[in-house]
Amino acid sequence: MADAEHFDVLIVGAGISGIGAAVHLNRDCPSKTYAILEGREDIGGTWDIFRYPGIRSDSDMHTLGYRFKPWTNPKAIADGPAIMEYLRETIAEHKIKDHIRFSSLVKRAEWSTPDARWTVTTESKDGTSQTYTCNFLFMCAGYYSYKGGHRPDFQNEEAFKGQMVHPQEWPDDLDYAGKKVVVIGSGATAMTLVPSMADKAAHVTMLQRSPTYVVSRPARDAIANTMRKILPETAAYKLSRWKNITMQGYMYNRTRTHPEKVKETILGMARKELGDDYVAEHFTPSYNPWDQRLCLVPDADMFEAIKSKKASVVTDHIDEFTETGIKLKSGEELEADIIVTATGLRLVVLGEADFIVDGKPVDFSKTWTYKGMGYSGVPNLISTFGYINASWTLRADLTSEYVCRLLNHMDELGVRQCTPRLRPQDGDMPERPWIDDFSSGYMQRVMHLFPRQGDREPWLNPQSYTKDKKMFRQAPLEDGAMVFDNAASGAAAPNDAEPALTAAE
Q1: Is the pLDDT at 499 greater than 50, yes or no?
Q2: Within a 13 Å sphere around the CA of 30, how many CA atoms are in the beta-carbon half?
Q3: Fold for the domain defined by 157-221+258-341
C-alpha cells in the first residue's frame, strides 16, 4: 500500500456535486487534503455526457446553481454549454483543477477499522488500475449509470431499417434534417428533444404510453434579471434563489394538500395552448401532480412545436417494430427514419462500485439511510443525492455543509471514525422505501437496491429542503446515532454516545 496516494478526503465525481463539495472543503476545511476522482475525461457529469439537441436544465439555474456562486446568465433555464461554462468558472475561481484525477473510475472501496481509512481502486480508460487511500469518502457520483440508459426490448426491433439512438449515447454526426423522427418517451428528455429537433426534421412524433404533466415557464426570469440591474449581484442572486425555493416548496406542498386544484391549474394552462381535446388525450395524466416528476418546458416551446404542425404526440402502446417504423396496438403505424429511445435512466447505488467494510461486502439495501446521505454500519462515508421535486444542487450544497461540519467535529473530538448506527430506541422502526410517495418507473425499478428509511430522525430521507436545512444544519452532530470512535493516537475516545445496535445493519 506504500504506492497509494493518500488524502484526507476523496471526492468521487467531478459534476455539479463534486465541484461544489471541493469548494466547501476549500472554504470550511482548508487544512484537509483532497482529490476528486472522475471516471471520464472531462468535468460536468450529466452536462458532459448528454450531447443531444437542446440539452438544458429542467429547473431554474438560481436553484440549480450553487449557493456560493451567482448565476448571471439572463436565461434561468439554461442549455448544457452554458452550465458547463458556469462549472468551469467555478473550478477556475476556486483553484480546483489540479485536484481532479481524470480517467479514474472508482471500481472498489475497502474500509479498514484498524487503519481508519478507505482504500479506493480506480480504473482508467486503458484498463490500468490505480490505488488511493483516504480517511473520508465523499460520493458525488450522481444517481444513474454512465454505462448506458434504460431501454426496454421492443418486439421485432431488429426489423427496423432506420437508425435507433438513445439520448445518453447521441452520435455527434447524427443528421436528422428532413427526416421523420419518432421519440419514444414523455419525460424531460423527450420534452427537450421534440421541439429542438422539430425545426430541422421533416416531422417529430413523441410516442408515449401515458401522458405527463407539462408546465411552461419563461426561459428568462424577469424578476431576477430586474433585481440584478438594481441590486448588487450577490444580493440579487440570494433574493432570486429564495424566491424560487419558496415558490417551488409552495407549489409542491399544494400538490400534496390540494392535488385536484393544482391538476386543474396545470391542465388549464395546457388547454389554452392546445385546446380541450388535445390535452384530454395527450396531456392529462391518470395520477396527481408530483406523484411523478413534472416536466418544465421553456417559453412553451413544446406547445409551439405542436401548434406549428412540426411535431405531434401519439398516446398508444407499441405492438412491434417494422422495417419502416413502429406498429402500435391500435393498428396505426408510425413511419420513421430515426427512432430515439428516450426511455429513461438506469439508476445505480453509489456509482456502481463495490464496497467492503472490514472484509465484508456491503449490501446497501440492507442498511438504513442516515439523513438520506449516510448508511448504517458504513463508516466515514457520505453520498450526495438531490431532490426529485426541486433542484439537485439545493441538497448537494446542504450535504457538503454537513460533511465539513462532521470533519471539523471529528478533529475536535480527536477521533478517526464516524459511523451511523441504530440506537436502542430504533429497534422497532418500520421500513419504508428510500424514496417514498413517488411512482415514476425509473425510481420504482431500483428502489429495492437502495437503503431503507424509518419513521424518525435521523433515519429519514424527507426530500424536503425545509426539513433538510433543520436536520443538516441545526440537529446536533452527536445524536446517539452517529457514533464517533476510533480515537486518534493520544486522544481519548468520546464516551457520551448511547450504546448502538449493530445486528440490524
Answers
A1: no
A2: 3
A3: FAD/NAD(P)-binding domain (3.50.50)
